[in-house]
């Protein structure tokens, strides 16, 4: 297990992740606040009503509960993560009437094809050993007409971007090209592909045709 994955599995990180680690590092990496990321996630996933939402690599549930709060009776959000310390924090800090958490691996999801109306994965694909297989799994469990949204690393074509790739490589974080996810989404038949880059992060969303 590389440094980045070991860090994510550590109880000390789980304890500070939502309040300190994520707001600080994601602000540095993207210039964006957690509140903006949450608001845009709800918009990108087009959440409302009784939709069923899957939050892959949910960490301490810092997005999962927020996403569930956009839903009404009958809707729910499920967070999946492999880290026990992160899931313990999710249950303690981000429980709610329409939220559930499950331990699992993003590369082999225990759900039927088309089971969810919206699927997301924020801040994790660069940690997962086979991120493209995990993305294919997300699309497999997405219902026709459903929305997918990811946030992950982006290779900037400047000295800062090259430095981030070296640091990323040493720590085990992967840095993705501009075209990797739009191309994969197109290959998987998704439409309405939208990509925004903020500093070192990319935000990509798409629709599975009805
Ligand atoms: C940086 S946290 C992201 C938490 C939250 N989604 C966010 O945006 O703040 C990354 C999470 O990915 C999880 N993770 C990494 N590889 C995974 C895998 N193969 N399957 C499930 N979860 C994984 C880690 O346990 C960690 O909780």
TrEMBL record:
GO terms for molecular function: methyltransferase activity. InterPro entries: Methyltransf_25, SAM-dependent_MTases_sf. Keywords: Methyltransferase, Transferase. Gene3D superfamilies: Vaccinia Virus protein VP39 (3.40.50.150). It is an enzyme of class 2 (transferase). The keyword Methyltransferase applies. One of its GO terms (biological process) is methylation. Residues 53-146 form the Methyltransferase domain. It comes from Nocardia xishanensis. This is Class I SAM-dependent methyltransferase. Its EC number is 2.1.1.-.
């Amino acid at each position: 297990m590389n440094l980045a994955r070991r860090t994510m599995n550590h109880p000390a990180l789980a304890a500070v992740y939502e309040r300190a680690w994520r707001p600080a590092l994601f602000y540095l990496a993207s210039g964006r606040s957690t509140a903006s990321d949450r608001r845009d996630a709800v918009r990108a996933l087009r959440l409302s009503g009784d939709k069923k939402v899957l939050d892959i690599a949910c960490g301490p549930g810092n997005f999962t509960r927020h996403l569930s709060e956009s839903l009404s009776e009958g809707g729910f959000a499920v967070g999946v993560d492999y880290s026990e310390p992160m899931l313990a924090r999710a249950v303690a800090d981000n429980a709610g009437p329409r939220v559930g958490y499950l331990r699992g691996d993003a590369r082999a999801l225990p759900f039927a094809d088309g089971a969810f109306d919206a699927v997301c994965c924020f801040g994790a694909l660069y940690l997962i050993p086979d991120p493209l297989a995990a993305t294919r799994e997300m699309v497999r469990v997405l219902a026709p007409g459903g929305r997918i949204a990811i946030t992950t690393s982006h290779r900037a074509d400047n000295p800062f971007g090259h430095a981030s790739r070296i640091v990323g490589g040493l720590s085990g974080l992967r840095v993705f090209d501009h075209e990797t996810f739009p191309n994969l989404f197109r290959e998987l038949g998704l439409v309405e592909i939208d990509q925004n880059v903020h500093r070192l992060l990319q935000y990509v969303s798409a629709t599975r045709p009805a």
